[in-house]
Amino acid sequence: MTRRFSRTGRATALATILTLAASPYGALAQDAPAAPEQAAPAATAPDAATPEQPDAAAPTGDAAPAAGQPDGATTGDPVAQPGEPAAQAGQPGGEASGETNGDAAEASGTALAARSPATQRQVGSNWPFWGGGPNATRFSPLDQITPDNVSELEKVWTYRTGDMPDEKTEGKYSPEGTPLKVGGSLYLCSAMNVLASVDARTGKENWRYDPKVSDDAIPYGATCRGVAYYEVPDAPADQACAARIIEGTLDARLVAVDARTGEPCADFGDNGSVDLWQGIGDKVPGWYAVTAPPAIVRGIAVTGAQVKDGQAEDAPSGVIRGYDAVTGKLAWAWDLGNPELTGAPPEGETYTRGTPNMWTQATADEELGLVYLPLGNSSVDYYAGNRSDAEHQWASSLVAIDVATGKPAWHFQTVHRDVWDYDLGSQATLIDFPNKDGDGTTPAILLPSKQGDIYILDRATGEPLVPVDEVEAPKGGVEPDVYSKTQPKSGYHTLAKRDLTEADMWGITPLDQLFCRIAFRKASYDGIYTPPTTDRHWIEYPGYNGGSDWGSVAVDTDNGVIVANYNDVPNHNRLIPRKEADERNLKPINEKQPGDEGGTKAEGAGDPQAGAPYAIDVNAGWRAPVTGIPCKQPPLGGITAIDLATGKTLWDRPLGTARRNGPWGIPSFLPFSIGTPNNGGSVVTKGGIIFIAAATDNLIRAIDEKTGETLWSDVLPAGGQANPIVYEEDGREYLVIQAGGHHFMETPVGDYYIAYALPED
């Protein structure tokens, strides 16, 4: 049974009201940063003394997924098996050659073909992938920390990157970092892409490398979610860059350094760097940036990029590209608007502009040779009338790309003609899904969405393994003939709550509540997928940060439990006619002058949407004026456990306390669990513990997987908007979280990576 926020008794209700944030993303008041436990390191060249090459021992833990076929024939998009022809992008059902464009490939210096499947390191003593193991389950098989002893956890080391905002970048930091652990070292990045290796046991820095990213490259926020680790097949252990760390940067480069020394890999691109602006067009800093690590499949590093939302229809391309992880040479490109172009565009031309991009984390399937891309929507987000047929087809879809050819094998769309910014933000997770007849499992992919639906798809074909219905969508809006008449709805599970009512509107004073109720009555609202309007505001619920976002879900594969945290926050939006937008001087990023404001507003807050007849205003989190109090009653965020086999809710509870929240930005320091917005994900362990920070209360917490009860928590020196990891070193289990804070979530910014463990005997 789903649990909602309880207000039992007038006294409890009053206490909760008085402790709600002045902003749904956290109080404006900030905790004082804790005193540094380690001096911030200076930006220096790699140390002469470096750790030994991480061992290449045989992987342990979950077995690599086996390639499997669906049990029954289903209908859907044209499907090609890896290595076979696939339907061309933008041409449903069309035939396409599995060959690449020879001229373009030669011009781009195409790499060798994808390699054979390699044995993958597994999660356990290591955390070798952004999602833990190759299946991205964020499940650790370690069980040293249990519900019986988790209360004894203590802080054992703190590492500080030294990367903090200055006067120019104040209000623009949102690091969101998840480190990797391989052998005895952790590999991590800072908000501005400074790479570092630290000792997994002590937190002592081994080396650091600063790629010198310019401040003007920051889009909405300075964000580096993590790095990728790659071992060159058959390379001698003492060879330079035999094991390498690869990251994407805010100024759109792929950077590769030696995992032992931090020195740039001379054999990768131009002395360790590949320029991703090639083929994109005129360089406009901050418009095109990479915030997620590449997914490496059969030796091909696959990357997309974040294209800053809401600027112009003529935005940089959302092209997906694969690069040889050893040489950095372009292996292939997938331009969904021009599928015949499979390499670099001819000189003077660009990849198709304005197409859907992939800003989040892809998932690699080494066995099938596929990479699963969660795509966003087209530029611009809230107007669809000028989009091409190809954009309508591929936007807000999970696309499986055959890494041998760079061509789509299948795709599954979660929103038709998306005008709500419901792009796919979560990394997809590879699972073995129980068959209906109880006879075995099917290799599957679990896909969460921002609107809350969770889908289970066949990994090889993309066909749903649990029914997906098409439900009637609301009518009206400024483009009634363009919007889709139906929208997909998962028959498996949804994180979404019931539709809002006027009774859900509230505030800390009667005036706040009255304002919100009047605004609710005036707004256009017909449930989820309410069409955008310009003559009045419309309510988008959940908002674009709703449901499951980039933190993704964790899956306990031993016990068959999905752990999903979510946001339950509406947005209050209005399309702005072009004349009004011009009067407000709303300009896209490529037309702004030096010194113009940028990077501090939420996405959609006065975005120009140049080329469309409307700009857009989004009141993210829908706050009342003056007080900034949210119009929706709490909870504004939660965490739930779901039975993997059935999709049924096991428990559901608010996530986040009122300790940092209070009227007018004054922290109450009260421990009431009210459910705050959250950003970041969780890890679940065989010991039966869920570790998560994410909420705006600056706490890292341990939750009992069986009951949902908080068993332990600790106050972080800055916001914990990041995914934690769990690993083992010298027989001791460690928990590590980045406390970097987040400008959009309004939590205090820091440069900390913090490790916890049980006391040593």
UniProtKB/TrEMBL annotation:
Needed cofactors: pyrroloquinoline quinone
Keywords, alphabetical: Oxidoreductase, Signal
Record's compositionally biased regions (Low complexity): 30-90
Basic and acidic residues composition bias: residue spans: 577-600
GO terms assigned for molecular function: quinone binding; quinoprotein glucose dehydrogenase activity
Disordered: region residues: 30-129, 572-610
Sequence similarity: Belongs to the bacterial PQQ dehydrogenase family.
Protein name: Pyrroloquinoline quinone-dependent dehydrogenase
Organism: Jiella endophytica
